[in-house]
UniProtKB/TrEMBL annotation:
<feature type="transmembrane region" description="Helical">
    <location>
        <begin position="34"/>
        <end position="50"/>
    </location>
</feature>
<dbReference type="Pfam" id="PF20182">
    <property type="entry name" value="DUF6545"/>
</dbReference>
<keyword id="KW-0812">Transmembrane</keyword>
<feature type="transmembrane region" description="Helical">
    <location>
        <begin position="70"/>
        <end position="89"/>
    </location>
</feature>
<keyword id="KW-0472">Membrane</keyword>
<feature type="transmembrane region" description="Helical">
    <location>
        <begin position="6"/>
        <end position="22"/>
    </location>
</feature>
<feature type="transmembrane region" description="Helical">
    <location>
        <begin position="177"/>
        <end position="199"/>
    </location>
</feature>
<feature type="transmembrane region" description="Helical">
    <location>
        <begin position="138"/>
        <end position="156"/>
    </location>
</feature>
<feature type="domain" description="DUF6545">
    <location>
        <begin position="247"/>
        <end position="362"/>
    </location>
</feature>
<dbReference type="InterPro" id="IPR050039">
    <property type="entry name" value="MAB_1171c-like"/>
</dbReference>
<dbReference type="InterPro" id="IPR046675">
    <property type="entry name" value="DUF6545"/>
</dbReference>
<feature type="transmembrane region" description="Helical">
    <location>
        <begin position="101"/>
        <end position="123"/>
    </location>
</feature>
<feature type="transmembrane region" description="Helical">
    <location>
        <begin position="211"/>
        <end position="237"/>
    </location>
</feature>
<protein>
    <recommendedName>
        <fullName>DUF6545 domain-containing protein</fullName>
    </recommendedName>
</protein>
<keyword id="KW-1133">Transmembrane helix</keyword>
<feature type="transmembrane region" description="Helical">
    <location>
        <begin position="258"/>
        <end position="279"/>
    </location>
</feature>
Length: 363
């Protein structure tokens, strides 16, 4: 039951990721790595489809008995081979292309081996699961040795490549890579446990069903960790963007008293929206526009602000600013050299807004 739920969730995640990747390629294009990532996501998504009992039965009836199992492990092999190319540590596209060509060789050998060994398995065993009786058939055992062996090889290659990225990663990206490594190692160990079970049954006639259970548990936990590792950067970035949007929308509103005062004196500083209408945009863009409009207005009002304004408290600045606004509205302009007032606290957008926010809170 738990494995089934996880499979459904995994399928949904991979399906969404596939749609996202196709949209990214449509918008931005991409080289070998982008194509490999899309292939990996597509292969793993189809593998979940093929693992469905109804789909498997359809393939077995339409093609040949055991076709669903060949398709499942073939798609998993293609997905893992694509991940090897995705995670391959290289600074040039040419080297990555060469690695893709190299990885095509063991992939083709594995897929051909799966097809040949499936034909050697008796019809009544082709859709059976791992057990003491089925693994004593040489064709059946060889099929799972090839499938599990290639998956273990590919997963460990991915781990090896990701370890090289760890030296340069930091923050949430490093956390994501560590989770990915854990997931891939668990999946690889699960494949090796399956290999150990098959070899034990075939060579030593010892059936350790515990190994099958261990392989299943490791595969489920590894898949969850892999999905978390893949989704973590996107989820982290989205969460951070949402929190930043909420914070900036709040600060945008906090600036309103200062913005209202400045634009009341100088309406021309208000930037027009699209087609002259009110602008509808992201909180960050709205926040940035409000800062620009306020600073433009303060610069035009600066000849009317005495030198005391720069060193005054925020309460005193509020009084001086109101006086300057009244003078500007009476005269209709300001004469004299303009200067920057309320310099930013730092280089970021939030630092730029901080002195304006302090003044706005007093108004």
């Amino acid at each position: 039951m738990v494995a089934g739920i996880i499979n459904v969730i995994a399928f949904a995640v991979f399906a969404c990721a596939m749609c996202w990747r196709l949209d990214q390629i449509r918008r931005q294009g991409g080289g070998v790595q982008a194509v490999a990532m899309t292939t990996a996501i597509g292969s793993l998504t189809l593998a979940f489809v093929v693992s469905n009992k109804d789909v498997a039965a359809f393939l077995n009836d339409a093609l040949f008995t055991g076709a669903s199992r060949v398709a499942l492990y073939g798609l998993l092999a293609l997905g893992v081979a694509s991940l090897i190319v995705v995670f391959f540590f290289s600074s040039t596209e040419t080297v990555r292309q060469r690695r893709a060509g190299v990885e095509a060789i063991p992939l083709v050998v594995a897929v051909v081996g799966l097809q040949i060994t499936m034909l050697l398995i008796p019809l009544d065993l082709r859709t059976q699961g791992l057990s003491a009786s089925t693994t004593r058939n040489a064709g059946f055992a060889l099929f799972f040795l090839i499938a599990s062996g290639y998956l273990a090889y590919g997963l460990l290659q991915c781990v090896r490549s990701i370890r090289q990225f760890l030296t340069m990663a930091a923050g949430y990206l490093k956390v994501s890579l560590l989770i990915l490594i854990v997931g891939l190692i668990l999946l690889a160990v699960g494949s090796m446990a399956q290999i150990a079970y098959v070899l034990g049954s075939l060579v030593f006639e010892v059936s350790l069903l515990q190994l099958v259970r261990v392989a299943t548990i490791l595969s489920v936990v590894g898949l969850v960790a892999f999905l978390v590792g893949i989704c973590y950067p996107m989820a982290f970035a989205k969460t951070r963007a949402l929190l930043a949007g909420v914070r900036r929308r709040r600060r945008y509103r906090e600036l309103e008293p200062l913005w209202t005062l400045v634009t009341w004196a100088i309406p021309s500083v208000v930037l027009p929206g699209h087609g002259g209408t009110a602008l509808r945009s992201t909180p960050t863009v709205l926040f940035e526009r409000r800062i620009v409009e306020i600073r433009d207005g303060l610069t035009q009002l600066s000849p009317l602000l005495s030198e005391e304004f720069d060193d005054a408290s925020d309460a005193e600045r509020a009084k001086l600013l109101r006086t300057a606004v009244d003078e500007y509205r009476e005269a209709g302009t300001s004469k004299g050299a303009v200067r920057d007032v309320l310099p930013p606290d730092g280089t970021s957008l939030d630092d730029d807004a901080e002195p304006l926010l302090r003044l706005a809170r007093v108004l």
